[in-house]
UniProtKB/TrEMBL annotation:
The name this protein goes by in its record: 3-isopropylmalate dehydrogenase
Binding site for Mg(2+): D224, D248, D252
Gene designation per UniProt: leuB
Upper classification of the organism: Bacteria, Pseudomonadati, Pseudomonadota, Betaproteobacteria, Burkholderiales
Top-level taxon of the source organism: Bacteria
E.C. code: 1.1.1.85
Length: 360
């Protein structure tokens, strides 16, 4: 049966890196129908909306979405609903993509590319599970108003609402425990329960869900300590489950343990098995259009697409093995380049992955 994949390149380096991942998907002997559509600033320029109805409909009707990145400084002055970032937030919300998997794996060849000492990061393999459709990202009310009371009464104030419903915490906690069951059976829930009501509630629900998973060793950590522990001794972690905001920040931090944010893929899944796959980084406007962006996070996201949305585990492994082979050959985009390795551009990195794939 043909599988439908929506391809949404977006802004900045998005088109360059997605092009390489598309080449990889096309090189596999699978029955895929890839359809491209505009998203983010590119869509705003064309259709005056970052997530045009046709793009959303295409995503909804697809088995999976391959997404590049959105955003550029030139859109920062637009009213919020027209900013490129609303496209990815809108897709996550409309498709119900509540479970964001961000694996931070250090390939042995990149041990020296990390800013941390090789002995601290060697063998690193962490799965960060970030809740993606709740928290302060989507809580209402939010906005700017005249402060209603207290010391600042009458002044303007900005405000957002951090909130989680019980069912939202339960379903992401279950994903955390189920993932831990498939790995080392250790789960660390990260919160700020010493200060935030939402976090104490999160922790209480996670403890309740833990009763269904007696074989998993559950621990809790405050987010500030987790940020510190991730650089001090990252290998103490296996699976981390956390809310939307903390997960956003910790996954960027974890990315650097692996050498570059250009190495960190992600999968965002809903309850129906549909998924959106994107690198964890942004549109990197500072390096866009120069053929220097690392396409590996996007290619590895395509591997996650094969595994989680298409049930093609062996093809996913082939793509991951091709990435490893290319790193073993010493090919590096500038973000992971070090003395003794060969510097290549975005397209050449894509060529090398394709070659490795054809040899496998
Ligand atoms: P960013 O992730 O785009 O870039 C941060 C730094 O990492 C930059 O120096 C960039 O050059 C580098 N970098 C990122 N990806 C890289 C890659 N593949 N190869 C090599 N280097 C890479 O974050 P930012 O600068 O804070 O944000 C830029 C824009 O991207 C903003 O508009 C932001 O809102 C948006 N953004 C979008 C997404 C998304 O679409 N999901 C995610 C994060 C940020
Ligand atoms: C990410 C990004 C997004 C987020 C932005 C662009 C809305 O930083 O995917 O990590 O904060 O979730
Ligand atoms: Mn982020």
């Amino acid at each position: 049966m043909t599988k439908k994949i929506a391809v949404l390149p977006g802004d900045g380096i998005g088109p360059e890196i997605v092009e390489q991942a598309v080449r990889v998907l096309r090189a596999l002997d699978l029955n895929l129908e890839l359809t491209e559509a505009a998203v983010g600033g590119a869509a705003f320029d064309q259709f005056e909306h970052p997530l045009p109805p046709l793009t959303l409909e295409l995503a909804q009707a697809s088995d999976a979405v391959l997404f590049g990145a959105v955003g550029d400084w030139k859109y920062d002055e637009l009213p919020r609903e027209f900013r490129p970032e609303q496209a990815i937030l809108g897709l996550r919300k409309s498709l119900g993509l509540f479970a964001n998997l961000r694996p931070a794996i250090l390939y042995p060849e990149l041990a020296n590319a990390s800013t941390l000492k090789p002995e601290v990061v060697a063998g690193l393999d962490i799965m960060i599970i970030r809740e993606l459709t709740g928290d302060i990202y989507f809580g209402t009310p939010r906005g700017v108003r005249s402060a209603p009371d207290g010391r600042f009464a009458g002044e303007r104030e900005g405000y957002d609402t951090m909130r989680y419903a019980e069912s939202e915490v339960r379903r992401i906690a279950r994903i955390g425990f189920e993932t831990a069951m498939k790995r080392s059976r250790k789960l660390c829930s990260v919160d700020k329960a010493n200060v935030l009501e939402t976090s104490q509630f999160w922790k209480d629900i996670v403890i309740e869900v833990a009763r269904d998973f007696p074989e998993v060793e559950l621990s809790h950590m405050y987010v500030d300590n987790a940020a510190m522990q991730l650089v001090k001794a990252p290998r103490q972690f296996d699976v981390i489950v956390t809310g939307n905001l903390f997960g956003d920040i910790l996954s960027d931090e974890a990315a650097m343990l692996t050498g570059s944010i250009g190495m960190l893929p992600s999968a965002s899944l809903n309850e129906k098995g549909q998924g959106l796959y994107e690198p964890s980084h942004g549109s990197a406007p500072d390096i866009a259009g120069q053929n220097v962006a690392n396409p590996l996070a996007t290619i590895l996201s395509a591997a996650m697409l094969l595994r989680y949305s298409l049930g093609c585990a062996s093809e996913a492994e082939r793509v991951e093995a091709a990435v490893k082979a290319v790193l073993a050959q010493g090919l590096r985009t500038p973000d992971i380049h070090e003395p003794g390795t060969t510097r290549v551009g975005t397209a050449e990195m894509g060529d090398a992955v394709l070659n490795a794939l054809q040899r496998s």
